[in-house]
Design a protein that fits this description.
heterodimer; A: alpha/beta; Gyrase A, domain 2; Four Helix Bundle (Hemerythrin (Met), subunit A); Rossmann fold; 6-stranded mixed beta sheet; 16% strand; globular; B: alpha+beta
């Protein structure tokens, strides 16, 4: 943690939110070039001002994007500080990944107006321009509070508060052991603290892994194509991949095993699973395939439930319907062969919905969820444009919630804070094991607590002593 | 008696003593006024000095030229180094003292101090003119003028003592309260609030059956507070005795709760959470069957025993009743019953870091009047207030210690920045730079500052300088001396339970190994200084150098904000981008630096940016007007 925020090297996207051809990430501060170079080792140690450098931005050995970096030396940039402007491909995921790398390397995400603020402090802009920053700063705290409140809905704040509470408990025990050593208190042993902290670390990990966007980006996503036999699942797979990956015939039950392959869209790695169509089958091999289909539908991040409007009478098998029911939020209806659509789309959906209702497996609410208009795609595997439209729909469905540019920043901020909180807990635990001294452990844990509290928008203020007095009977 | 002095110090408790000694030693003609000549440096509560964080402050005070450490060293009757086996930053020295000898030592020190006059009287009011303090009015109506005044009134401002439903005016048993002074301050616009504290019963030694208690001795190897004290005890060392309350004790206390002024709403002041009354303890920690208590002798030649941990304000008969249920106290005779005291304090965000008040110039406050608790907290403020009261007269700049330099700095910065809701006691956890603020390195932190303050005698200075040289020499030898992996060395390394060398290393590197301590180096015929003032400090610097370095880096970062001074007259209402709450708080505290502004609770980082823009903008405007006017002329 830095005491003086103006000393930090900061970074942020400086192109407007939304998808464009190119996004520009600005990095300003003493460590700009040095940090950028960490991810683009081909860059020289010293850069020339106002010169653009081409390189591959890599984390460890993994390529994130090809970028062009323009370097501005101290005194000759917008902010007046050493600055790098990184032009990368205009995908939110690429931007997010680069920012994640930077914050992991110790940079801080810039606050709104912070570049302008620095420009003013370094005599790069005049007073009138500076006035506008003040109002920006003013609105920023309000906006930040609103945003925090929005993001902390849905129990996240409760989980963090619980972790905060547990950490405070540990710190209270450590501090009581230091400052009230003569009081004969029942504080916990080192081993108990180590165990407790390991549990807390696991909780933080669990929380960090729930950040969907983070996980999706790191691990890629799985999309399963499911549906009755011969509705065109394999054709859709081939269309998405742009190659003949699955064998396509008119014979129902051609696909017997799960076939998977990946493509990349907007920097997101998407793995598609083509499954065997589910029907009552006596064929032993086909039955095995069906088992696998059901498993795949459970593992996938998104299930595309494919229907053929020309043969709506091919009802889904009850086991399949149960599988859909259990994943109702992660299912998306895809009407294939829409070029051969006879009736009006709405009539078609109505009759589809009626027939699913007659299965008596779904509640009305579940059906409403499934038939949410926003989530239904009409495609034709034969149409070249289908692939792009479907990819966009998949991307929208998986990523969009909480992933537009605005929340991108605060999301990675939360992740960043969780991450540093986690690191400090780990260090504290190592120190406990080596028995170095309680004050060192306390130092790390306090930092960890401060990071967590920043997620909650709280500031650190003597809560530990409050807790000590609550937990222990102290007094001479 | 003369009616004009340079400085008047009101009160001769732990704060008043350090204040008047500081001003007199800086060559200013000083008057100290006490209501009771027999109670100079009197320990109104527990007969001990030091402890965690408090011991740190006593050592800091010692390097700055204060008296408390020396007095505690020569009157010590039991010595302990707390946390001595734990981390280096949290080792704290505590001594039990002979409180009468302490009181005698301080009385003699004051009487022998050149330039200091001591009188017994009560100060009724301050001489004020145009918001400037110019002396005091005594109870006989006489006026004494001075250039600065330091008030260290302790718990005496409108002090009220409670035992059961009985109430007496006074700040301590046997001493009357100071009435009038706080009303005058209130009239002047000071925010005055009320705090509460308490003290346990004093018991007659002969009435205690010590065989039912557990005897506890102190440590033999003495590491005194003061660099100038001998490393051997002056007085014989005695034991304290440990006993515990019982379920029966708690029943009686619960049965009598309706007679406790604390629980009947009679006492309004806020008491310290770290020093609860026994009534509080049995109520708040209901499931705890027993609370420990120490029987501490108040001195060698006294029959009084202080019952640590059992502060109470129950009526006398209830105290008698519950005390007799504690093992060893079955036939106890109470010499003085426990009581609670309520008193006025000045909300400390109304004073500057130099401890001068904002509303009234030349008036300085120190000790419990600022909302603190404890002898040590009082003493360090006394020294700071005294030094500043003197420097103001001498035309020198203010003396303020940073949070990264001393617990004293943390204490005062907390008080003037955040105020306090309960009597403020120092804890090590209050210091964000705890690893740097250790007992062993007070010389490194404060000697340079101190040598310029002028409170240390020439003799003391040369002793401290000699100590610094010894430390440097030892550190140098550790760095330069080397061990080579020959058979003899490897055997010796195994004998101290460390691992063999695979290449040559310096003694410093060896000492950095967790399992190796200074004393081990003697195996290699490496000479280790016997004085812990030398060896311990160097060992810690070597062993924890990584952490120390990291902390120093953080301090350097923080310094940048601390160095940005703010004008005390700056009106925060004029700064754009601040919330109403921020404006109000900043205007109330009037932070000295941007760093302090950031520590005010409720002031956000964005506010700091707004202030910086304002400062910068003003500077630019000034430059522009200057250029403009110059261009015209």
């Amino acid at each position: 943690m830095s005491f003086h925020r103006d000393q930090d090297t900061i970074c942020a996207v400086s192109t407007p939110p939304g998808r464009g051809g190119i996004s520009v990430i600005r990095v300003s501060g003493k460590l700009s070039w040095q940090t950028t170079r960490k991810f683009i080792p081909s860059f020289p140690e010293r850069a020339q001002s106002h010169k653009a450098y081409f390189g591959v931005f890599r984390e460890n050995s993994q390529t994130i994007d090809e970028v062009v970096v323009t370097f501005f030396e101290k005194g000759r940039s917008f902010t007046g500080e050493e600055t790098c402007e990184i032009s990368c491909h205009g995908s939110p995921i690429v931007v997010r990944e680069i920012l994640r790398c930077f914050t992991g390397a110790g940079l801080r995400l810039a606050d709104k107006g912070e570049f302008t603020y620095r420009a003013f402090m370094n005599n790069r802009i005049d007073l009138v321009q500076a006035e506008s920053i003040v109002s920006m700063i003013e609105s920023q705290s309000l906006a930040a509070a609103k945003q925090a409140a929005r993001q902390l809905q849905g129990g996240l704040s409760q989980i963090i508060e619980k972790i905060e509470n547990d950490l405070t408990w540990c710190l209270a025990h450590i501090e009581a052991g230091i400052d009230f050593v003569t009081e004969n208190l029942d504080y916990v042993s080192n081993q108990e603290l180590i165990d407790k902290l390991s549990l807390i670390a696991a909780e933080v990990d669990k929380l960090a892994s729930t950040f969907k966007s983070g996980r999706l980006i790191r691990e890629g996503v799985k999309v399963a194509l499911i549906g009755a036999p011969n509705v065109g699942k394999s054709s859709l797979l081939n269309s998405l991949l742009g190659e003949e990956r699955s064998i396509v015939t008119d014979i129902a039950g051609t696909t017997r095993d799960v076939i998977e392959d990946s493509f990349s869209y907007e920097g997101l790695s998407i793995k598609v699973l083509d499954t065997a169509g589910v029907r009552n089958s006596t064929d032993h091999v086909e039955s095995l395939g069906i088992e696998r289909t059901l498993r795949a539908s459970k593992e996938a991040d998104l299930c595309l439930v494919v229907f053929d409007p020309t043969q709506l009478e091919t009802w889904l098998e009850p086991r399949m319907l149960q599988a859909i029911k259990s994943r109702i939020k992660d299912c998306m209806i895809v009407i294939n062969k829409s070029d051969r659509l006879g009736a009006e789309a709405s009539d078609l959906l109505m009759s589809l919905q009626l027939s699913l209702r007659s299965s008596k497996i779904f509640t009305d609410q579940e059906l409403a969820e499934l038939f949410n208009r926003q989530k239904i795609e009409f495609v034709s595997a034969l149409d070249k444009r289908t692939a792009e439209g479907l990819k966009a729909a998949i991307y929208r469905h998986l990523v969009e919630a909480g992933f537009e540019d605005n929340s991108l920043v605060s999301h990675s901020r939360q992740f960043e804070l969780l991450h540093s909180s986690r690191k400090q807990i780990e260090v504290a635990n190592e120190l406990l094991k080596s028995d170095l001294g309680a004050e060192f452990v306390a130092l790390e844990l306090k930092e960890s607590l401060i990071s967590l509290q920043q997620i909650l928008g709280k500031s650190f203020d003597d809560q530990i002593m409050d807790r000590v007095f609550k937990e222990f009977c102290i007094g001479k | 008696m003369a009616t004009n002095f340079d400085v008047i110090v009101v009160g001769a408790g732990h704060a008043g003593i350090e204040a008047c000694l500081a001003t007199a030693r800086l060559g200013l003609n000083t008057l100290i006024v006490t209501t009771n000549m027999d109670r100079i440096g009197y320990m109104s509560c527990n007969p001990s000095i030091g402890g965690l964080a408090k011991g740190h402050m006593v050592r800091e005070l010692d390097v700055l030229g204060g008296e408390m450490g020396k007095a505690a060293d020569v009157t010590c009757i039991q010595y302990k180094r707390l946390n001595s086996t734990r981390g280096p930053a949290v080792r704290g020295t505590r001594v039990q003292t002979d409180k009468h000898k302490y009181n005698q030592y301080m009385t003699e020190t004051l009487l022998n101090q050149k330039g200091l006059k001591l009188i017994q009287a009560e100060v009724k009011s301050l001489l004020l003119e145009n918001g400037i303090c110019g002396g005091v009015v005594l109870d006989d109506g006489s006026k004494i003028t001075s250039q600065t005044v330091v008030i260290t009134a302790g718990t005496f401002l409108n002090g009220v003592m409670h035992i059961g439903f009985k109430q007496m005016s006074g700040g301590r048993v046997g001493d009357k309260a100071a009435v009038g002074l706080s009303d005058q301050l209130k009239e002047f616009g000071f925010r005055v609030q009320r705090l509460k504290t308490g003290t346990p019963p004093r018991l007659l030694k002969q009435s205690i059956d010590f065989s039912k208690t557990e005897e506890q001795f102190g440590e033999k190897s003495f590491y005194p507070f003061s660099f100038l004290s001998e490393r051997s005890f002056v007085l014989p060392q005695v034991a304290c005795h440990l006993t515990r309350t019982t379920e029966r004790t708690h029943e009686i206390i619960r049965g009598n709760m309706h007679k406790s002024p604390l629980y009947c709403g009679i006492i309004e002041g806020t008491g310290p959470r770290y020093c609860p009354s026994i009534e509080d303890k049995v109520t708040r920690f209901e499931d705890k069957g027993s609370h420990q208590t120490f029987l501490e002798p108040e001195g060698l030649d006294t029959d009084l025993i202080y019952l640590q941990g059992i502060s109470t304000s129950l009526p006398e008969e209830s105290q008698d009743e519950f005390l007799k249920t504690i093992p060893g106290l079955e036939n106890v005779k109470v010499v003085r019953y426990g009581y609670a005291v309520e008193y006025d304090f000045i909300e400390p965000t109304q004073i500057w870091h130099r401890l001068e008040t904002r509303p009234i110039e030349n008036l300085f406050l120190a000790g419990q009047i600022n909302g603190t608790s404890g002898y040590e907290e009082a003493a360090v403020q006394g020294l700071v207030a005294g030094v500043n009261a003197a420097r103001k007269i001498l035309g020198k700049d203010e003396f303020v210690l940073g949070r990264d330099e001393a617990y004293i700095g943390v204490l005062i910065d907390d008080l003037v920045t955040k105020g306090t809701r309960e009597p403020y006691r120092m804890f090590t956890s209050r210091a964000e730079h705890r690893l740097i603020l250790r007992e062993d390195n007070t010389i490194d932190r404060l000697y340079q500052i101190s040598s310029q303050l002028g409170l240390l005698s020439e003799g003391a200075k040369s002793q401290l300088e000699a100590l610094k040289v010894q430390r440097q020499d030892f550190a140098h030898r550790l760095k330069e001396g080397r061990l080579y992996p020959n058979q003899e060395t490897q055997d010796k390394i195994l004998s101290i339970k460390s691992t063999v060398l695979n290449k040559s290393i310096s003694y410093e590197e060896l000492l950095r190994r967790p399992e190796v301590q200074c004393a081990h180096l003697e195996v290699f015929r490496f000479e280790v200084p016997q004085d812990p003032n030398v060896s311990e400090a160097v060992e810690i610097e070597v062993k924890y150098s990584g952490y120390v370095k990291k902390q120093l880096e953080l301090i350097n970062q923080a310094k940048k904000l601390e160095e940005l001074r703010l004008d005390p007259l700056l009106d925060y209402a004029l700064i754009k981008g601040l919330s109403t709450e921020e404006r109000e708080k900043l205007n109330r505290v009037k932070p000295r630096t941007l760093g302090q502004a950031q520590r005010i609770s409720g002031v956000n980082p964005s506010a700091i940016q707004s202030i910086m823009i304002h400062l910068k903008g003003n500077r630019k405007l000034r430059e522009m007007t200057r250029e403009h006017s110059e261009g015209r002329s």
